[in-house]
Amino acid sequence: MKSGQxxxxxxxxxxxxxxxxxxxxxxxxxxVTAQGLETLQRRNRRYDxxxxxxxxxxxxxxxxxxxNPLRMSGQSGLQAEKMASFAAHLKQAFSIxxxxxxxxxxxxxxxxLLDETGIRDSRRKEVIDKMAAVLILQSFLDARSxxxxxxxxxxxxx
Length: 158
Known about the structure:
The structure is a single chain. The protein has 158 residues and is of the alpha/beta class. The protein has one domain (2-146): YqgF/RNase H-like domain (Nucleotidyltransferase, domain 5, 2-Layer Sandwich). The chain has helices at 45-58, 78-94, 106-117, 124-146; strands at 11-17, 21-27, 34-36, 40-41, 61-68, 98-102. Helix 3 (106-117) crosses helix 4.
């Protein structure tokens, strides 16, 4: 794969961060596809970072992609500012590249996909968070692949 030629080996973790849960996805080692992992029930910053640290080690993660909840106009709002702060904490805690990635419509797309599958029980919120993380990460991977490795997030400097 062309986009992997200049990148170190390892996976990319995708996060859909909410106030109560973090949907989590991880790429395959080549950075082509995203698969959902268990949704993290948030407790506090220390707990959340410890749980993410375990995932980074377990999956040999080299980068993190955090969904950036921009307004439909593309402008940042309060939630986007919170995600920028969260991403900065991740970069500081883990010393690996952290990218913010436009997540507009991913939750709506996750709802649409789940409606098609008929999942309507108590797991729905967790499944939506996981699916949104997969959609965020897959979008990032597709954009990187389409740009043959030339893609560089403008937010790498967090």
